[in-house]
Amino acid sequence: MTDFIPPAKPLIGDEEVAAVERVLRSGMLAQGTEVADFEREFAETFELGRGCVAVNSGTSGLHLGLLAAGVGPGDEVVVPSFTFAATANAVALTGATPVFADIDPATFCLDPASAEAAITDRTKGVLPVHLYGHPAAMPAFAALAERRGVQVFEDAAQAHGATLGGRPVGTWGRFGMFSLYPTKNMTSGEGGMVACADADTVRTVQLLRNQGMLQQYHNELVGLNNRMTNIHAAIGRVQLTKVLAWNERRRENAAFLSANLAGVRTPAVAEGAVHVFHQYTVRVPDDRDGFAAALKSEYAIGSGAFYPVPVHRLAPFASADADLPQTDAAAAQCLSLPVHPSVGPAELERIVTAVNALARAGG
User: Fold this and answer.
1) End-to-end CA distance of the chain, in Å?
2) Would you say residue 4 lies in a domain?
3) pLDDT per residue as tens digits for the range 319-347
4) In this structure, what is the dihedral angle of CA atoms 141, 152, 324, 103, given to the nearest 10 degrees?
């Protein structure tokens, strides 16, 4: 029987297991020095040059970052609709309104011109997503923010280590959020990391994650319990020692696929961008879902349709008034193929053979 190639696969080794055991045996399980070390090492590994705050999920990171930036009821934040719902959910959870804009069809990231057209006198900020590991057009968003007097925030959930013009994602906005969910380029089991532009934002996110206090029983504001545990931080610290090599393997796998696939549109990489290929996403112009089903049933290859329902068409946001043709096209055509570090030469050959055969046959 042919082994199934999964679309994503967390990589957990003996080192992660040993780190968890070390923390468990220490008895210090809740947020502590392990988390503080993880925060510092995360900033160092990705050369962020800013303070990082660990939280219990990527969604929490977005939520707290937005709150720290002053986003609240009556405000609007411009977001892409072609993304995971958490991007818009985090805005809505502050009491603000997500306003949806279209994407660049080449990179799948928020289009600066569409975002600017969505700005009103209630707009507090713009929240690009570095989708699939490709950096959004951040110089254009920085210029837009200066021109229109709004803030820039970054959803870097899928883009650990991605850069544009040599500058890391997560360093352009008031904050940048990285997810640490198991299928991301690195994981802490579950969690998120907020990279903050200044000390005030760091402190506010720290307060918000911990019931509004830095000193026990001296609450300064109304906060949440969004802390990361030492257990999760220990996993993340080990993963930091591996993620850069894993990213390089993802790029190598992506390069092989792009050089050999035919009949589908392979991913673009913008000039000056370092894409970390959280997903390797092609366009299948006809019957994407049938193509994916055939990959699985005939070739034992997994794939993922991210995201088949644009966020502005989901029930919580269905009243949103948005005409987003590039988003609708991507939602109908995009298919992500296995590119993770566990995919070896034989698996890559099989993916190429399968995709090319199905493309020739019309899916």
Assistant:
1) 23
2) no
3) 767 899 999 999 999 999 999 999 999 99
4) 50
